[in-house]
Amino acid sequence: MTLIDLANPTRFLALTARVLPWLAAATVILLAIGLYQSAYAPDDYQQGATVKIMFIHVPNAWLSMFVWGVMSIASLGTLVWRHPLADVAAKAAAPIGASFTFLALLTGSLWGRPMWGTYWEWDARLTSVLILFLMYLGLMALWRAVDDPSRAARAAAVLTLVGAINLPIIKFSVDWWNTLHQPASVMRMGGSALDKSFLIPLLVMAIAFTLLFVTLHLAAMRNEILRRRVRSLQMMQASRIAFSSDVAAGSRQENASKEVGAA
Amino acid sequence: MTMSLGPYASFIVMSYAAAALVVAILIGWVMLDYRSQTQRLRELEDRGITRRSGRSATEQR
Questions:
Q1: pLDDT at A159 over 60
Q2: Fewer CB within 10 A of the terminal residue: chain B, N end or C end?
Q3: Yes or no, beta carbons of B49 and A111 under 8 Å apart
Q4: Pairwise CB contact (< 8 Å): A102 & B11
């Protein structure tokens, strides 16, 4: 099945119906393994047991940027290729991305208090992620503000692509500026700085959360397609009512003119 | 094997609890939204409003 085949919403719905149960099962299994490994990972020699927050904070932080990346590709699909499901994908991803970003900020804050002595610091990494969260909220508000989905899609696509400038700023903020946040320790030149006892649970949790995103995203896209079907059927119903009332008014007028003629 | 969370246990537990709560809300939102949309489509179809193709709007196969 190619990307063009998936342009047909009915075919896409058939695919999600087949794939979603398997994806959900794989997500639950991987999350269970990841949580077990995280629970029994050793304490860090400096941070103690608070290192366990990393297993939940880092996957959410990665996903906060990954989801915006997915939305940016979908926005290109809307503006350049005019793929019928591109704006459905972008719209469905936004609340999920906003939730992951919120969790990254919250768990980071809860990790920061015991380690840095503060819940919040206006440094480059934290501030750029907060801006990302606000952009997610702005995008969701924009989708709600415009009634016509195709008009909203174009405006949201432009905003998403402009917002993508923030992704490299978030990624390299710890290198470009002197921040309280630590520099990259997993994806960096020269390999990961993390010991395997931390790296393996972290990667399992990252894959589990990514699968969770894929599952929720496909389900939310299915819902969005159904919502648009509801909208088009409601418009069809409204036009039928308008047409029948026009016909009734026309026949009343005709009868009235006949009566006047007879008089 | 026992798990000791040390002096900052409340921060660790709150992080995991918050993640669990947000994920549960997301799953609940997706499931309730699906139920609501399929119900609205069925109501419209029961009133005789169908797609031009004549196929059911809730059809997924």
A1: yes
A2: N
A3: no
A4: no
Per-residue pLDDT, B17:
97
CA dist list (Å): A16 to A24, A214, A228:
11, 11, 17
Rounded distance between C-alpha atoms, residue A98 and residue A93, angstroms = 9
Phi, psi dihedral angles at A48 (to 5 degrees): 65, -140
**What distance in Å separates the CA atoms of residue A123 and residue A83, rounded to the nearest whole number?**
39
Given a contact cutoff of 8 angstroms between Cβ atoms, the answer to whether A128 and A173 are in contact is: yes
A226 contacts B34? CB cut-off 8 A = yes
User: In the structure encoding, which two tokens stand for residue A105, read together?
Assistant: 């900020």
Phi, psi at B60, each rounded to 5°: -125, 10
Q: Quick one: average pLDDT of A203-216? A: 97
Q: Give which of A114, A98, A94, A96 is closest to A54, Cα–Cα.
A: A114
Report the alpha-carbon angle A167-A203-A91, nearest 5.
Answer: 40
Alpha-carbon span B5 to A103, nearest angstrom = 21
Cα–Cα dist A143/A148, whole Å: 9
Report the candidate in A7, A127, A128 with the shortest Cα–Cα distance to residue A78.
A7
- Please give the Cα distance from A180 to A190 (Å, whole number): 23
Average pLDDT over residues A77-98: 93
Site from B8, B29, B36 to mutate, A interface, most A CB atoms within 10 angstroms: B8
Interface predicted TM-score of the whole assembly (ipTM), two decimals: 0.86
Closest to A59 (Cα-Cα) out of A118, A21, A99: A99
